[in-house]
Amino acid sequence: MEELQDASIHHTAAKLINTIKTLKNYEPLYENVQKLVCSPAVDRNDMCNTLEEAIKSAGLETEIRNIIFHLVRSKLKPEEKPSQININDPLAYLKRAGVQWDRRVRKSLNAMCSELKMASQGQPRVATDRDELMTKWDELSNYTIDLANYRPVYAPKDILDVLLSLKGPSKAVENTEQVPKWEFSHISLPVKNLFELRNHYNDLLRTESYGGSTDMNLQCQRVLESKHAPLCQHLLRKGNTPAPYRGALWSYVLGSHINNFDIDHWNRLKATVLSTDHIVDKLVFKDIQLTASNDDQYFVFEDVLYQVLLCFSRDTEIAQMIQFEHYPIKGKNYEAPPSGVVPFHGICMFAAPFCYLFDSPINLYFTFRAFYIRYCHRLTTINTHPQGIVSICLLFEKLLQTHEPQLWSHFRELQIQPIRVVFKWLMRAFSGHLPPDQLLVLWDLILGFDSLEILSIFAIIILSFRKESLMQVNSLDNIEAILADLSSIQVLPLIQLALSRD
């Protein structure tokens, strides 16, 4: 048994080393270690011990630990890439639906390109347009662009309609008659019950006081001085992060601190935007004008959002880092934007909250990018990930059935799908629906617990909170009117209440 454990540890260590060597920050890290080896602090006669102490003293140990922390969370997890269809896979239909949805979205984008006589992979930007874009880069809200013929490729409602139309493996007749067609019960994805969720979010239920704002400020300062990503993540679990420290804490948790190679990458992305005219540019401008520009909380950030989303659309590293659903199906493949992400209605609302955390577009960009890749992408594609939108919808439905049976029955009597009421909250992770200060608390908890399940819990407790009013209405319009204004909602106490209920 010990030999097997040793072999497993050795295999994991070897895998870590090989993966670290492929990272952008490997070369500067290796150079710093080489400098230490040649320094007086390292004794050739006791190389192992003295080098280890020198690495600790120089702060490189923490940097290495943070790299391993991020790798273990993401890149070392095996990806499922089946070479052929497994007819016994109970989720085969869902994986196939994910690939078909991605193809459908790309096909729509390509059709729009054909309709507007634009190259699907972009074309050289004319000199006058390039010069205007360059001159107005810091005030892109004044950039002249005709968007009359452009429309969002898809919206939350479109992906919800696909989810509700999914047909799972056939069941016995007696079962199918009991389950309405619009429920998610046929989906075999595992989701937690309330007891398991309490265990996962146990830190939120502790009764000890975290102290006042002064004490929390001191804790943030100490943790940030340590530069240790897991400690930063643990601190975010408290849900009362002081605003001045939030951006730095998020950067450590997401591994998005800026290096010289990041600045070079940003400049290359900007140069690509200036030199190439792509249909996604118009879709980015259209989305921001339809959403953030009309939002009282975010319209002031319009210019920086244009910069960030335009560069995001050109970033080929995103396509390499995102874990797309893999499933072999026949048919034509369609071109995607360089980032692999087709802009949809509301995509800029994932970036908008970061404007409250960072003054620099570069810092904002890389932290937003990391957050999108780890979380937002799972909410905007059809996938089988346990943190994906399908799992989050299924969790919401099961919690509503179990802990709010009256509301569940009320929705069923009205033949209103409960998920239709909350889907826009879930898919956007409540961005644009909660005031920014409360949204950032919610996203603190997503990062702190590394889980999107908090979205389903929060959606349930909002319905519970307004249950009395909901029970008195009998139309979808009236239900949506009751839930339209979330400005008075306080995230932390409501989630604590949801987790502590019987």
From TrEMBL:
Residues 240-450 form the Rab-GAP TBC domain. SMART domains: TBC. InterPro entries: Rab-GAP-TBC_dom, Rab-GAP_TBC_sf, TBC1D19. PROSITE patterns: TBC_RABGAP. It comes from the Eukaryota. This is Rab-GAP TBC domain-containing protein. It comes from Stomoxys calcitrans. The gene is 106089628.
